[in-house]
UniProtKB/TrEMBL annotation:
Organism encoding this protein: Hyalangium minutum
Statement: the UniProt record of this protein carries the keyword Manganese: no
GO biological process, one term: phosphorelay signal transduction system
Residues found modified as 4-aspartylphosphate: D86
PROSITE patterns (alphabetical): RESPONSE_REGULATORY
Response regulatory domain ranges (all copies): 27-155
Name of this protein: Sensor histidine kinase/response regulator
UniProt keyword annotations, A-Z: Kinase, Phosphoprotein, Transferase
InterPro entries membership: Bact_response_regulator, CheY-like_superfamily, Sig_transdc_resp-reg_receiver
GO molecular function per UniProt: kinase activity
């Protein structure tokens, strides 16, 4: 069984931790005693998107780093199945610039733009990236269900 590879490009370490917590919960053998009791009482947390394929989550904290990771993954024959991209990442590239460059090297990789702000134009994005495989939006703060549904929808073959 291979893993679904997902890249999170965001300047906030807390956002990376949220993605890991929501998509890659610990296995039962990795839980401490209190967490194991909680899981036995209330049920184990669902895995990343309720899929049979585990998720391999990778992180980049700036657009330039994210682009380099996508290029390395492509060259190694292990491309990402999905990229979550923050729109604001000072002092580096913003989400628009990062998306433009990602689209040049990996046009078929689905990208989900994540932001708490609405200071970018979806019309402009749709116009420029009309040929993009998938371009979606996920508002911060995001909920577990919406995140897992996007992962399921955008990474599993035959699910749309």
């Amino acid at each position: 069984m291979h893993k679904r590879r997902i890249l999170v490009i965001d300047d906030s370490e807390d956002i990376h931790k949220d993605f890991a917590r929501l998509l890659c919960p610990p296995k039962a053998e990795d839980l401490d005693d209190l967490s194991q009791m909680e899981a036995s009482l209330f049920g184990a947390p669902s895995s990343g998107g309720d899929s049979s394929e585990p998720i391999e989550l990778d992180s980049a904290f700036q657009g330039q780093e994210g682009l380099a990771k996508v290029q390395e993954a492509q060259a190694a024959g292990r491309p990402y199945a999905l990229v979550f991209l923050d729109y604001r990442m000072p002092p580096g590239w913003n989400g628009y610039e990062t998306l433009r460059r990602l689209h040049q090297v990996a046009p078929s990789v689905p990208v989900v733009l994540c932001s708490a702000f609405s200071d970018f134009s979806w019309e402009k994005m749709d116009k420029e990236f009309a040929g993009a495989h998938v371009l979606k939006e996920l508002r911060k703060p995001f909920d577990k269900g919406a995140l897992q549904k996007l992962v399921r929808t955008l990474t599993e073959p035959g699910v749309s």
